[in-house]
Write a structure and sequence with these properties.
Blueprint: H1 15-36, H2 44-69, H3 74-97, H4 104-139, H5 142-145
Helix pairs in contact: 1-2, 1-4, 2-3
Length: about 150
């Protein structure tokens, strides 16, 4: 059984953002497998580094999408993104330096963040996205809305 399972309630109705959320869930599951010893071939620090990059790319896409939507809570949302990225980047530096290791507590933190991010934060803009995204997709080029790959 996966550590974190995608549920229909996680969907916000924006295909690209839902896809990125699924990728992040997959990376969190890989990190759990690596840390718990379920998959000894997975290197926890490499999976964590990929997870940090995926989060960074996801946030960049999400913020760009929000700007085009005219999301009124964008400044606060960017602030929460920055806070998490700063924390993850600091942890990654510590892991790279060998001063700490990837722990089960970190994996649990990422799981809790992911479910909170989707169920609380992302659903706040889901209605606005549904209302305006069709217009955005029609008026934006594919390059403007394509996601930087997470994995």
């Amino acid at each position: 059984m996966a550590f974190l399972v995608w549920e229909p309630s996680f969907s916000i109705g924006v295909w690209e953002i839902d896809r990125q959320h699924r990728l992040l869930i997959g990376l969190i599951n890989q990190l759990h497998e690596a840390v718990s010893g379920v998959d000894p071939d997975k290197k926890p620090q490499a999976v964590f580094a990929a997870t940090v990059e995926c989060v960074r790319n996801h946030f960049a896409f999400e913020e760009s999408f929000f700007e085009r939507l005219g999301y009124e809570d964008l400044v606060a949302h960017k602030g929460s993104h920055k806070q998490l990225l700063d924390q993850l980047s600091d942890l990654r530096r510590q892991f790279d330096a060998g001063s700490v290791s990837v722990s089960p507590e970190l994996v649990k933190l990422l799981k809790e963040w992911m479910t909170t991010h989707i169920l609380q934060c992302a659903h706040r803009y889901a209605e606005l996205a549904a209302e305006r995204s069709q217009r955005l997709m029609v008026t934006s080029s594919v390059a403007d809305v394509a996601c930087m790959p997470c994995a």
